[in-house]
Amino acid sequence: QVQLVESGGGSVQAGVSLRLSCEASGFDYNNYFMAWFRQSPGKEREGVAYISRTGDYTYYGDSARYRFTISRDNAKNTLFLQMDNLKPEDSGVYYCAARAGVGEWTKDYTYDYWGPGTQVTVFS
After folding, report:
1. What residues form DSSP beta bridges with 37?
2. Which residues have C-beta within 8 Å of that of residue 123, sequence separation ≥ 6?
3. How far apart (Å, rounded) are the C-alpha atoms in residues 124 and 112?
4. 3-state secondary structure of 56
5. Are the beta carbons of 37 and 47 closer than 8 angstroms?
6. CB 35 within 8 A of CB 96
7. For labeling, which of 4, 5, 21, 90 is most exposed (least CB within 10 Å)?
8. Cβ(55)–Cβ(116) under 8 Å?
9. Which residues face 4 on adjacent strands?
10. Is 29 helix (H, G, I), strand (E, B) or coil?
11. DSSP-based three-state secondary structure for 30
12. How far apart are CA 8 and CA 27, in angstroms?
């Protein structure tokens, strides 16, 4: 069956880095566009970063641009999110998501598969 499993979250001090991973199985990973979303308490789930099937192009949400880097290893069916210079407002549950189709990448309803999420808490 389809599985997306995130890891790498934690509770960290502002200014440090974290690297999230998402291992995919049960579907043709190489032919899916991938993304990271974040949901913070009291807020809607928002798109953090997006990557094409081959990794040749990426998009970032405003809060992630210049500090976060999305990448993928298609040989290992794994998605990554490198987060540098973390801030308290980066806190939330981070989800990886996969979709076969196209459309506005920040719209969560366009994604076919979701992981259960990993918690990131950044304290000042």
Report:
1. 47, 95
2. 11, 12, 13, 14, 88
3. 36
4. coil
5. yes
6. yes
7. 5
8. no
9. 24
10. helix
11. helix
12. 22
